[in-house]
Amino acid sequence: MNTHANADAAVLIGRFQPFHKGHASLLRMALDAAPKVIVVLGSSFHARSAKNPFTWQERAAMITATLAPEERGRVSYVAVRDYYEDARWAGVVSKKVQQCAAGARRIALVGYIKDNSSHYLNHFPQWQEIFISDAADIHATAIRSVLFEAEDIDVSLAVVDALVPLAVRHYLRAWSLLPCYRPLVQEHKAVQAYRAAWRAAPYAPIFSTADALVKTAGHVLLIQRGGFPGKGLWALPGGFIEQHERVLQGALRELAEETGLAVLASSLAAALVDVKVFDHPARSLRGRTITHAHFFDLQTEQLPAVQGADDAAQARWTPIADLAGMEEQFFDDHFHILDHFLRLTRED
Predict the structure, then answer these.
(1) Domains identified in the chain and CATH numbers
(2) Taking every annotated instance into account, which residue ranges of this chain make up the domain Nudix hydrolase (predicted)?
(3) What predicted TM-score, i.e. pTM, was given to this entire model?
(4) CA-to-CA dists, residue 303 to 54, 261, 262, 274, 299, angstroms
C-alpha cells in the first residue's frame, strides 16, 4: 500500500449511497496525499430509487458535512452518469477530472480493492494508484436496507450509528423528512418481495425483456409506470418475454398492451431500424435482467393515437428535444437506451 503519492490532486470515485465510515477513511487518505481532492460521484442524474436514493447534490452535501471548515475548499465534486459502457464511462471520468484538476500534472487515484465490483479502478492506468485491500467491512447496500426497513427512522439510525460519520447520521435524519422518503420505503419493500419470490430457484434467475423505442415526427413514445418499482417514472414500453414468443413479438405485444399504438404490427416490423441488447448486470433493481431494445422509426408526419393501459399509468408522445431535460425522471437505464439510439448526451 502506497499512501505517499506526493500528488497534485487525488481522485476518489464512488456512489456513496450513502457516505459511510469506510468512504471517510479513503477520503482522509486522499486529503493526506494531495492538496486538492476530486470526488467523482457515480450514478448521478438517476431518478431516485431504492438503490440510488440520494441525488448527487445530496451526496456532495453529505460528504462536505463531514469535513473540517479548512478542508472544504480543498474538495471538489464531479457528477458522472452511468453509461453502462466501461470505456465510455472511464473516458468521461478522465475528461471531467482533468478539467477539474486545472492542469495538475500528478494525479493519484485512491481506492479500496474489495471484490469484482472494484474493477472500475483498473480503467485509469495514467494515474498513480493508492489502493488498499483491507478496510472496514461496511456495505452501503446494507445501510440502505436498514434505512428503508425499520418502521421508525430513529431505530434505523441507531442501527447504523457505528457505520456512518455523525454528520451523516444527522443528515440522514433530516433527509428522511423529505417527501421522497416514504415512496422509497414502498419501493424497497416491493423489490425485496419480488426477489424473495425467486429465492427458492435452484439458480439465480436471469430475466429476458423486450422494449420498444418508437420514433416519429420528432417525438418518441413513452409510458409512465403505474406501479413499483419506478412508480411514476417514465420508461419505454416493454416487459417480460413470454414462453411462446420471439423477442420481436414480445416487443410488439408489450407496445400494444401498454400504449394501444394505432399502427399495424406489420407496419411496425417494416419500420424496425435497429435492435440492441442491454445486459449490464446492474441495470435493473429487480435482478439480472437482459433486455432487447427495438428501435422503430415510423417516419410519419402525424402522431398516431395512443392510450396508456396495462402496467402503464399513461402513454404519451414526447418531443425528442425534451428528453435530455428529463434524464432524472427515467426508470432503470431507459434514458441510456434512448441516449444510445438518439445520442442525447455529448460528453464523450
Answers:
(1) 9-181 (3.40.50.620), 207-342 (3.90.79.10)
(2) 197-341
(3) 0.91
(4) 37, 10, 10, 21, 10
